[in-house]
Design goal:
Largest sheet of chain B: 6 strands, antiparallel
Largest interface: A-B, 64 and 55 residues
CATH class of the largest domain in chain A: Alpha Beta
Number of helices of chain A: 8
Shape of chain A: elongated
Distance between the termini of chain A: 30 Å
Order of helices and strands of chain B: EEEEEEEEEEEHHHHHHH
Low-confidence stretches of chain B: none
Strand order of the largest sheet of chain A: 17-18-21-25-24-23-22
Helix content of chain A: 10-25%
Largest sheet of chain A: 7 strands, antiparallel
Low-confidence stretches of chain A: 1-6, 15-41
Oligomer: heterodimer
Number of helices of chain B: 7
Structural class of chain A: alpha+beta
Structural class of chain B: alpha+beta
Distance between the termini of chain B: 91 Å
Strand order of the largest sheet of chain B: 2-1-11-10-7-8
Radius of gyration of chain B: 33 Å
Number of strands of chain B: 11
């Protein structure tokens, strides 16, 4: 979960760009031809020049405008992947224009200053990709390398960061991210807002991935979508533009497919770990990140252990809307000194669901069922809640809250949050989650 | 025939401060009123002349008043009269200076006595004191129990207990004083024991009922959420307490006092519950927790099996869809910054 919160999509937003503009003015010499006199440079930098020269004709900056404004609302990058002016970029660069076609328009600007309209042809929200058509442009496409770059391979990233013009950054590929549900290439190099949708290259100039996100708080930890995802999207894309009326149902069905794949990957039975007699769901797959901790101070009236797991599978769907995540948390409580009544009071206070936050624009209120259960042989209280998405049909969020009621000196509160899922799959998984919980002192 | 009259000197709220019984051997009575010891009825009022007025009762029993050339005159039926002779007093009442007097004769027609159907209509003071003591003890115990429940360390407990008790005592003291003042204005007596008993007995009953509801919820899986039982119990308690206070602090008739006491909490409570329901109908983050966790010894009913629970979940999707429909209807376009 920590990684998700910190990973920032490298979409440029107008206000972020202005602050950096003055600093970036010096770097603005890249829109023309290569400079005549090249100062002596190391081999790597000469390679970077070669990559940039190769990329330049295939690059566009994609800009979004709100209403009839001529000042931009956001911007990102894109590059040609097929003849006929077909470019690839990130879904999160064009999502506003796809979801609110009446409010946003998309335009491109090439490094030489040519401009024109951009139409969205196909989207892949699971991998944060979109294919767009830049009207009036037909550059030769860049070569997509279908196999993932290996660890330690020299890599480059090109894009339009912070609106300061076409830029190349140099780094190293760290191969495919292990333990990630959606495939990502770890690029150890700079990726800044505005470079979203730009290409990541190997030393030979083949595209190994598409710039997608980076960690602001960390140093040079950035991610690319592997190039084979763009190949797959290209293969299934249609020749015509995406019908705006169908866009939301397309987003909903891709989201459901993502969640279904996620739940399938977890399997029909969750592994458990015993915490003070309670078998509770434990790390169910390699891509699920789990943390556990507690307050080590002795002599506390109530000892609490926290376990939290997150599949880091949340997708960006649009402004104020992210879904497709799965997370669960346990609080295991015990008391050496408190009586049963006061311990029950503490359990009651700890009984709060997590992950229920939501924007009223996007989500309807929860409908809940709460019952005292004989849960696999011990007394517990369980609440299962479902809420519908207001603008995406057939997509729901699930929240499950389970509290033990069987012991006077120990107990647990466990909470599950699953977002952007079909309702039957949500309830099936709720059952899987409840079945995993057992009392085995 | 001997004639007898009674002259009553009235105080605030028409309370009789002094009663003078005057008998005359014949059927006519003549009584003088003033500050002088020579008068039949002696008053301490500085606005009354030494010999101020005269009361006559004629042979037919009519009460008449005459002003004996006083500076301030006599006031009859709201009119101040100077130098008048033998003005009839329709209900026997008149005023000299700042003192009200009432003249009663043997011919006065009185209502029949009230039937005594066993016991005093209001609890005797001893009973009131007993109720106050019981209510106070239970209230303090309930507060102490609540504080004890929410603390874990003895040090924390003692601080919280003292703070809580002091707060409750000060607030209830002010509340009781306010009603006692109202009683004093209305009836000339504070009735503070009655008001204090009302406060503490109601609070004790409320605390017991709330605790009972919570324990029942946890023990039997009684699914009424505390967000509903809480306000309802408080509302009922407020209605009961307000009726007790109003009946004892206002001259209005009991049914009206009770109606007002029920109406005020009912209006406030329904407005609050309505607003709460409204905000819950549009808040996607709200999850109502209906069940209490109680110690295992109090869990009296076996819970549902997982299969039975799964059956109850069958309509959850339909209910979520219904909430979506309500949200779209009540709040079709929520503001951008209303995420909560």
């Amino acid at each position: 979960m920590i990684r998700l919160l910190v990973a920032i999509l490298v979409l440029g937003v107008a206000c972020a760009a202005t602050a950096e503009r003055r600093a970036g003015d010096a770097a603005r010499d890249d829109s023309g031809a290569p400079q005549a006199s090249v100062p002596p440079a190391a081999a790597a930098s000469i390679a970077a020049r070669g990559i940039l020269d190769r990329a330049r004709p295939a690059m566009i900056q994609i800009k979004g405008f709100f209403g009839t404004n001529t000042a931009e609302a956001f911007h990102g990058s894109g590059f040609a992947v097929a003849r006929g002016g077909v470019f690839v970029t990130n879904w999160h660069v064009v999502s506003d224009a796809v979801l609110y076609p009446e409010k946003y328009r998309l335009e491109y600007r090439t490094p030489t200053g040519a401009t024109g309209r951009v139409l969205v042809r196909a989207i892949d929200i699971r991998h944060d990709l979109a294919l767009v058509e830049a009207q009036g442009l037909d550059p030769s496409p860049l070569t997509l390398r279908p196999n993932v770059a290996i660890k330690g391979e020299r890599a480059y990233s090109v894009g339009f960061p912070l609106d300061v013009g076409l830029t190349i950054t140099e780094g190293v590929s760290n191969g495919r991210v292990e333990d990630s549900f959606e495939p990502r290439v770890h690029y150890s190099g700079a990726l800044n807002p505005g470079m979203s949708g730009g290409p990541g290259f190997d030393a030979a100039g083949g595209v190994i991935g598409i710039n997608v996100s980076g960690y602001r708080a960390s140093q040079l930890v950035a991610f690319l979508v592997p190039a084979d995802r763009a190949v797959a999207l290209l293969a299934r894309s249609e020749k015509s533009a995406l019908d705006p009326m169908r866009a939301r149902s397309e987003v909903a069905s891709q989201l459901r497919a993502h969640s279904e794949a996620l739940l399938t990957a977890l399997g029909p039975k969750l592994p458990t770990q015993n915490h003070q007699g309670y078998e509770l769901p434990a790390k169910p797959a390699a891509f699920v990140e789990c943390h556990a901790g507690g307050d080590p101070t002795p002599d506390q009236p109530v000892h609490i252990e926290h376990v939290s797991c997150d599949a880091k599978s949340t997708l960006y769907l649009g402004r104020d809307l992210q879904a497709g995540g799965l997370s669960f948390q346990h609080q295991i409580m015990s008391t050496p000194s408190l009586d049963a009544w006061r311990f029950a009071y503490r359990m009651q206070n700890a009984k709060t669901p997590h992950g229920s936050f939501g924007a009223p624009r996007q989500l309807a209120p929860f409908a809940c069922k709460q019952r005292n259960l004989d849960l696999n042989g011990f007394a517990a209280n369980a609440m299962v809640c479902l809420r519908a998405y207001r603008k995406l049909d057939g997509v729901y969020d699930l929240n499950v809250l389970v509290v033990s009621k069987n012991a006077s000196k120990q107990g647990f509160v466990s909470s599950l949050s699953l977002t952007g899922v079909a309702p039957d799959q949500a309830l099936t998984f709720a059952r899987v989650y409840l079945e995993a919980i057992r009392w085995k002192p | 025939m001997e004639a007898v009259i009674v002259v009553e000197v009235l105080g605030g709220h028409d309370r009789v401060r002094a009663r003078h019984r005057i008998a005359a051997p014949d059927s006519q009575v003549r009584v003088t009123v003033g500050r002088s010891a020579a008068c039949d009825i002696v008053l301490d009022d500085p606005f009354v002349a030494p010999i101020h007025a005269r009361i006559d009762v004629d042979g037919d029993g009519n009460v008449l008043v005459s002003d004996l050339d006083s500076v301030n005159g006599v006031e009859v039926g709201g009119l101040r009269l100077h130098g008048v002779e033998r003005v009839p007093l329709p209900n026997g009442a008149f005023r000299v200076g700042r003192t009200r007097l009432r003249v009663r004769t043997a011919r006065e027609v009185l209502a029949p006595e009230q039937a005594d159907r066993g016991g005093p209509s209001r609890p005797a003071r001893a009973t009131e004191l007993k109720m106050l003591a019981a209510g106070f003890v239970v209230s303090v115990a309930a507060i102490a129990f609540e504080v004890w429940t929410s603390t874990t360390q003895p040090r924390e407990l003692s601080t919280a207990l003292v703070t809580m008790l002091l707060t409750v005592l000060v607030l209830s003291g002010l509340w009781i004083a306010l009603w006692a003042l109202a009683s004093r204005v209305a009836f000339g007596e504070s009735r503070w024991v009655r008001h204090a008993a009302t406060v503490f007995v109601t609070y004790a009953a409320l605390a017991a009922a709330s605790l009972g509801a919570e324990v029942l919820n946890g023990a039997l899986g009684w699914h009424v959420p505390s967000s509903v039982t809480g306000p309802v119990l408080v509302g009922v308690a407020a209605a009961v307490a307000l009726s007790g206070h109003l009946v004892n602090a206002s001259p209005m008739r009991a049914p009206i006092a009770v109606a007002i006491s029920v109406a005020i909490p009912a209006v406030i409570l329904s407005a609050m519950l309505w607003m709460q329901a409204r905000s819950e109908n549009r808040s996607p983050s709200h999850i109502a927790d209906r069940d209490r966790i109680v110690p295992p010894a109090l869990v009296l009913r076996r819970g549902l099996s997982l299969d039975d629970f799964a059956v109850t979940l069958a309509d959850l999707k339909a209910r979520a869809d219904a909430r979506r429909v309500v949200a779209e209807k009540e709040d079709p376009s929520p503001g951008d910054d209303e995420s909560d």
